[in-house]
Design a protein that fits this description.
alpha/beta, TIM Barrel, Immunoglobulin-like, 5-stranded antiparallel β-sheet, 18 strands, globular
Length: about 500
């Protein structure tokens, strides 16, 4: 007994002598370090897997410049004229929801030193200048009320190019818009100086800390691979032997510092967060890659997102900001794009540009509401789904994949789908076969025939979403043959729901 008591005493003593910092060490191990190996341990949030459709808005002094007859208007003059007198965050988020969006947010910073939030770091913010309102803060508050994840985007590419002297420095509001800041463009051994990157980091970190976004989307100015791809001297993550080797980018140490700050803030807030970046701007596996105004060929193994411009590019002048010359894509086109992306493990972040006064044009509202009407009937085939073993069947596929592939030639490269084109998604026992055009009285889904993936007896029931008519069906060697009703249940893209045993 004495030996037992002595042993227990020794165990207790050893336990009590464990370093007091062990609990802290465990906590520290969870923190992300500012290096790629540590950041790659981050996993995409579980909740993001089911998020397929979001909306964000390019709105700023560029909107004023685009709408002005004065071709010589500077960015500073546009800031002074940008009033945004009818901006209402509640109205914006109402429209997001009526369009069927699951998440949304602002363009927090785009193309100048003016930031769209109530900044303590700079007077050049949307509370002191322009519309005199906290755009980011008010939208974040309204989205959070409705349990919609917040995406905030940072587009600082024009900001960097001004430091390179490509655009008149009188427009630069990063430091002092009335001073000569040209020395910062080359002070780092011929490249942009650290004071510029320090200002970049501190502003974005402030926006993260103040508004706690769920997702950050880093556009131009964060990495430099997309311009290289478009200039033709790099492709698919490979630098070609010909051409220059210029990659215009924030230094890796700043990228790492920014991402680790955001990821660690997510741990502090007790929620999962995600960073979105353009293909190859950072190493793979750290966040979710974005394809700008484009699409991809085939089923993708990794989740991805495309930020899609609602406008077609007739005029390439601040194309992402509202311009009546750049006609909006109709709802049928946008829904087709959303379906195709979802079937390939992607999702859509749709740019919906407001007018200078902060309202949305009638044509923008119409197409969004038509999207919402389709999603109200068929949303279960999009929301919270995952890809099937085949993304689809039929003759039509993307012909111009990658960045800007769907924006070229006024959007004419966006595929025009037929009744033979079918896209698949699934959720649990439900498999959704989305027929991309009205097939008439009969549809045949080849992949679901008796020799296909589903064996005889695997199908429990079939219905056409939005229709009360019973669907007659038969599995043959040719495919799953369906008799469609005479009346269409919606205006475009028709969802066959297949319940499996």
């Amino acid at each position: 007994m004495r030996n037992i008591l002595l042993s227990m005493f020794c165990i207790t003593l050893l336990w009590s002598c464990k370093p007091a910092s062990s609990k802290q060490s465990t906590k520290e191990k969870k923190l992300y370090q500012a290096d790629w190996s540590s950041l790659r341990k981050h996993s995409s949030p579980e909740w993001l897997d089911g998020m397929k459709f979001g909306i964000y808005c390019h709105w700023g002094p560029q909107t004023v410049q685009v709408g002005s007859d004065d071709e010589e208007m500077t960015r500073l003059e546009a800031i002074e004229q940008w009033k945004g007198e009818n901006f209402d965050a509640k109205v914006w988020v109402d429209l997001f929801q009526r369009a069927g969006a699951q998440f949304g947010g602002p363009v927090a910073w785009h193309g100048s030193g003016l930031v769209n939030w109530d900044s303590d770091l700079t007077d050049w913010n949307s509370v002191n200048k322009g519309p005199k309102v906290d755009i980011y803060g008010s939208l974040a508050k309204e989205l959070r009320k409705r349990n919609m994840p917040i995406v905030s985007s940072f587009h600082t590419g024009d900001f960097w190019s001004r430091m390179w002297g490509q655009i008149s420095l009188e427009d630069t509001t990063v430091l002092d818009p009335n001073a000569d800041n040209s020395s910062y463009a080359t002070m780092n051994n011929g490249r942009i100086g650290d004071p510029i990157f320090d200002a970049w980091y501190s502003r974005i970190a402030e926006a993260v800390d103040k508004y706690q976004p769920d997702m950050i989307w880093f556009d131009t100015g964060f990495g430099g691979t997309v311009p290289a791809e478009l200039r033709g001297h790099a492709t698919n993550g490979r630098l070609l032997p010909e051409g220059n080797n210029e990659l215009r980018s924030a230094p890796e140490r700043y990228q790492q510092k920014m991402i680790s700050h955001f990821f660690n803030k997510g741990l502090e807030w007790g929620k999962e967060v995600e960073v979105i970046y353009k293909t190859h701007d950072i190493p793979t596996g750290i966040g979710m890659r974005d394809i700008e105004d484009g699409n991809l060929i085939g089923l993708q193994y990794d989740p991805w997102v495309s930020d899609v411009n609602m406008q077609r590019h007739f005029e390439w002048k601040s194309t992402w900001f509202y311009n009546p010359v750049n006609k909006v894509k109709d709802a049928a086109t946008l829904v087709d794009m959303l379906i195709d992306m979802t079937s390939k493990n992607g999702r859509m972040l749709l740019n919906v540009p407001p007018m200078a006064d902060g309202t949305f044009s009638p044509e923008v509202q119409k197409e969004l509401l038509d999207m919402g009407a389709w999603l109200k009937i068929n949303g279960e085939a999009i929301y919270n789904t995952m890809p099937w073993v085949l993304f689809g069947e039929g003759p039509t596929e993307v012909t111009h994949p990658g960045h800007h592939g769907q924006g070229k030639n006024r959007g004419e490269f966006i595929p025009k789908y037929t009744a033979q084109d079918i896209r698949f998604t699934q959720n649990g026992k439900s498999l959704y076969a989305i027929v991309m055009d009205w097939p008439g009285e009969k549809a045949v889904i080849r992949a679901l025939g008796k020799n296909g993936k589903l064996y005889p007896g695997d199908i429990k029931s079939i219905q056409l979403l939005g229709s009360s008519k019973k669907i007659k069906w038969e599995q043959t060697e040719a495919g799953l043959e369906l008799d469609f009703p005479k009346e269409k249940p919606c205006d475009f893209a028709y969802v066959v729901k297949v319940e499996r045993n």
